Prior knowledge:
The complex is a heterodimer. Chain A is of the alpha/beta class. Chain A has helices at 17-28, 42-49, 70-81, 93-106, 210-220, 228-232, 263-266, 298-308, and strands spanning 2-6, 31-38, 56-61, 86-90, 110-114, 116-119, 122-127, 132-138, 143-147, 163-166, 176-183, 196-200, 223-226, 253-257, 274-279, 292-295. In chain A, strand 12 (196-200), helix 5 and strand 13 form a beta-alpha-beta unit. Helix content of chain B is 29%, strand content 31%. In chain B, helix 3 (94-108) packs across helix 4. Chain B has a nine-stranded mixed β-sheet with strand order 9-8-7-10-6-1-4-5-11, with helices on both faces. In chain B, strands 2-3 form a two-stranded antiparallel ribbon. Chain B has a single domain, classed as Rossmann fold (3-Layer(aba) Sandwich), CATH 3.40.50.620. In chain B, a hairpin with a 2-residue loop joins strand 7 and strand 8 (152-159). Chain B has helices at 37-51, 69-78, 94-108, 127-135, 188-194, 204-207, 235-245, and strands at 2-6, 9-11, 33-35, 57-64, 82-87, 112-116, 139-149, 152-159, 162-169, 172-176, 199-202, 215-221, 230-232. Chain B is of the alpha/beta class. Chain B is globular. Chains A and B meet through helix 3, helix 4, strand 5, strand 7 and strand 8 of A and helix 3, helix 4, strand 7, strand 8 and strand 9 of B. The structure holds flavin-adenine dinucleotide. Flavin-adenine dinucleotide sits between chains A (201-203, 227-230, 241-246, 258-260, 262, 264-265, 268, 279-281, 284, 297-299) and B (13, 37, 120). Chain B: This is Electron transfer flavoprotein subunit beta.
Amino acid sequence: MSVLVYAEHDNAALKGVTLNVVAAAKAIGGDITVLVAGEGCAAVADEAAKVEGVSKVLLADNAAYGHQLAENVADLVAEVGKDYGHILAAATTTGKNFAPRVAALLDVGMISEISGVESADTFKRPIYAGNAIATVQSGDSIKVITVRGTGFDAVSAEGGSASVESIDVVKDAGVSKFVSEELAKSDRPELTAAKIVISGGRGMQNGDNFEMLYKVADKLGAAVGASRAAVDAGFVPNDMQVGQTGKIVAPDLYVAVGISGAIQHLAGMKDSKVIVAINKDEEAPIFQVADYGLVADLFEAVPELDSKL
Amino acid sequence: MKVLVPIKRVVDYNVKVRVKADQSGVDLANVKMAMNPFCEIAVEEAVRLKEKGVVTEIVVVTVGSKTAQEQLRTAMALGADRAILVETEENTQPLGVAKALKALVEKESPDLVILGKQAIDDDNNQTGQMLAALTGMPQGTFASEVNVADGKVSVTREIDGGLQTVELSLPAVVTTDLRLNEPRYASLPNIMKAKKKPLDTVSPADLGVDLTPRVKTLKVEPPAERQAGIKVASVEELVDKLKNEAKVI
Ligand SMILES: Cc1cc2nc3c(=O)[nH]c(=O)nc-3n(C[C@H](O)[C@H](O)[C@H](O)COP(=O)(O)OP(=O)(O)OC[C@H]3O[C@@H](n4cnc5c(N)ncnc54)[C@H](O)[C@@H]3O)c2cc1C
């Protein structure tokens, strides 16, 4: 049996999460093929060919896939993937967008956000905002799966020497069109890949106050995240939301500042190695998961932290 | 223009669920149930489109047990015009639900289907995309803005890197994200009125669909508990612990 891994990329470079998905594919077993679909993305295919454990790379380079439109990508993956036992994508907004379409086109059930592989047909996945872990078994001939990056240690980006084969499958459903994109630009590490994450909540009071967190983050090489309340209030953009319905992070150190610790927020960060909470309310539920809790006013504690680093 | 809004009855988002001792699932006995929060956002969006004069009829639907009538009534109190219950005691899964919805789409011919991006029980995030694939409709998932004009819908989507806007031909499927709107509460007069709105019940067999689950749950366990930590007295102590004890900075 062989596994098809859908590469996550921006047409220029392979995204790190693909290495976690390949790790999940290795745990399943069998030959690993990586499919790179995009526009002007040959360099990505070359990168994918070097990834440890990959035996073949398929490159579908066409304008129809340039913006990862789900309608087109799903048609492609369903056609290419029908000869595989497993189709894996990252549980990112790209993977979540097209993978269920693929499953429906193949008339198979789908397994979302696996965090563990028990065997080729049995997987672990969090449900109820991570308050329960289900072990699920698929009876379908093709298993369509999204992989939670934090559940699998990345394979090496080097060491492989797969062949790259261009495929000439053009699927353009013609029903959707890319209009525009507003991508956050930041020199800080990406939230889901950072070793240290500092997040601010409603307690930050406004967007300007996040500057305090950025200063600390830059000293530590950290990424900055936020609670839903901080995003809803417009302090920071949506791509910074950590939680059940935002991004899932599991850094070595997670610092929650002015965040109460609602279950939906905990769902996105409680697998972090070390958790620090800074909150003025000593009853705040975030302290129940924090390794180190500091009961303090953040407007005093954060500048002091900055000065002591 | 007609909108179909599929919704789901789930555990209230404030409830911290417990796993059953026999590992067969989570304990839902005597637990508060509610409309899935993302579905509330979907209903609200449909109602706003109706208030703007874009939409003329809102049909709300759920695939689930008889008890889900409660959530259908809530949706009608919020502004949906009528409801359909596809009644089943089966533990529903996205592919089966999408097939039932497809059958309803064929019957009702909506111009737009608006549903939540995920239900907060199984956290699958699949049904809207599956329905779109089965019906050949385009999809605008994780929507934070929806504009209907000239036979098209433009959807701004919350993606990992920021925001993306796509334009879809109608009919289309839209799945809602948190920032799309802030749902209203139902007023008492509207709750009373909703009791008189039509609610049809159909069976999966009427629709010719098979809801047998494709994915089997072998067991459900509680997550690993975190060890209780300590409180530090000062920023100085915190920095010391992080450097010398946890060794993470
Ligand atoms: C369907 C659904 C999905 C959701 N998804 C997510 C998600 O993905 N991520 C997420 O985060 N939330 C999510 N939520 C929201 C979640 O339930 C909480 O509402 C949210 O996490 C609260 O954010 P907060 O902790 O910043 O705000 P609050 O709960 O208001 O907490 C603010 C905290 O700041 C502290 N504080 C205030 N001032 C100071 C100060 N000067 N110094 C120190 N501390 C201070 C307070 O003591 C308080 O504990 C979701 C909710 C729903 C219904």
